[in-house]
Amino acid sequence: MGMAAAETGTSRNDGAASSRAVCPFCALLCDDLAISRDGGTLQPSNTRCPRAIAGFSRQLPKAAAKLAGREVQLAEALDAAAAILKSARLPLFGGLSSDVDGIRAILTIADKTGGIVDHAMSAAAMRNISVQQSRGWIMSTLTEVRNRADLVIVVGDGIGDSFPRFYERILGPNETMFGELSRRVVLVGSGADKPLVKQGQPVDVIACTQDRIGTFVAALRASLKSTARPAATGIDLQAVEALADRMKAAAYAVIVWSPGLLPADDGDLIVLSIADLLRDLNATQRCAGLTLAGSEGGQTAIGVTAWQTGYPLRVSLATGKPLFDPDRYEITRMIAGGEGDALIWTASIGADLSPPATTIPTIVIGTPGLRLPREPEVFIPVGTPGLDHGGDLIRTDSVVSLHLRQLRDINLPRVSDVAAGIATRLAI
């Protein structure tokens, strides 16, 4: 668990060797990357994905444990973190950007200290979870979509930015496990992702602004049920009816959405409408949903928290048993409302997962160079799973856990190492 305050760009893996790797920088967890290593620099050599290129090749700044900006040894930082937690009455455990072992270890501390557990990107996740809990849904997987879906409807803009290889890896292949597949893609939105669709693949664009996505889904459901359409200003109803006919004729239609890219004010209602539409259509044919979410370890945090507590995030362990309340235990809201007296923020994958601004004592367990609103009381730099150490992450469709191998050695501890060190010092 040792860590020197040295330049973390150095690596023991020199030369131009190439390794096959899983990419942790979005929830697709693409597992076909070839990573070349030249000294301390990692570079994907077989993809143009901007997230993979930026993530693997990011040059890390000097990494050292710090107390209020002052460099210290790791042991001193662990002592200080434990002291903050011992004096806290309601610690808040946020961020949760880590692998399976890291999140399990953080949950152990939260259990010891009676804390609140939430992921930095849970607001988007809750739009899906609330529907899954209250209504249920019919979902597909990345593999099923790639091999069976002959009609894919992508609802809303931004998929290409958040999940750059989705069109290439999932919708691009014509050769499938079951032979040739003719697939049509329908983009509902601005059509900005059209250049990402494989050349020659049939693609339609139904123009729709983000604030009209809910209206579009309602109109599509009405057309599929042959009922009176709701008022649909700004929606091409002829295109909606044509799409409904295509869906009825499809062998395996799939609706794709990302909850974090839906309008904030009615995102959960849009997901609910999609779930109801899928249930209606499945009375007579096959049709499923595919949700793209869970980057920054989000899907992993949901899965591990559910295994450990029975609930998906926004859980309180303050009473000695897990309590789930998605409104009450949202950490961002709690901090803004003056609740909680310590923040433990974990962000080991990307450098942009900043903790919320707060004056309460803050412990950051993060990747070197993590953007911070202020110098925290304790900062402990950690490695990234899939680059600096091995680890397991859960893919966006929640059916596959992928193991990520270590590609370099820069002498940084894992989140689970740091959490174990804090837990030992708590001794409660």
Fold and architecture overview:
The chain has 428 residues and is α/β, with parallel strands linked by helices. Helices cover 32% and strands 20% of the residues. The protein has 13 helices and 21 strands. The protein has a nine-stranded mixed beta sheet with strand order 5-4-19-18-17-6-7-15-16. Strands 12-11-8-13-14 form a five-stranded parallel beta sheet, covered by helices on one side. A three-stranded antiparallel beta sheet has the order 1-2-3. A hairpin with a 2-residue loop joins strand 9 and strand 10. Helix 2 crosses helix 13. The protein starts with 17 loop residues before the first strand and ends with a helix. The N terminus is likely disordered.
In short, what is this structure?
The protein is α/β, with parallel strands linked by helices and about 425 residues long. It is built from 13 helices and 21 strands. The chain has helices at about 50-55, 75-85, 100-115, 120-135, 140-150, 160, 165-170, 215-225, 235-250, 265-280, 300-310, 330-335, 415-425, and strands at about 20, 35-40, 40-45, 65, 70, 90-95, 115, 150-155, 175, 180, 185-190, 205, 255, 285-290, 315, 325, 340-345, 360-365, 380, 390-395, 400-405.
Write the topology of this structure.
Blueprint: E1 18-21, E2 33-38, E3 41-44, H1 50-57, E4 66-67, E5 70-71, H2 74-87, E6 91-97, H3 100-113, E7 116-117, H4 122-134, H5 142-148, E8 151-155, H6 159-162, H7 166-171, E9 175-176, E10 179-180, E11 184-189, E12 203-207, H8 213-225, H9 237-249, E13 253-257, H10 267-281, E14 287-291, H11 298-309, E15 315-316, E16 323-324, H12 331-336, E17 342-347, E18 362-366, E19 378-381, E20 391-394, E21 401-404, H13 415-426
Parallel strand pairs: 6-7, 6-17, 8-11, 8-13, 11-12, 13-14, 17-18, 18-19
Antiparallel strand pairs: 1-2, 2-3, 4-5, 4-19, 7-15, 9-10, 15-16, 20-21
Helix pairs in contact: 2-13, 3-11, 3-13, 4-10, 8-9, 8-10
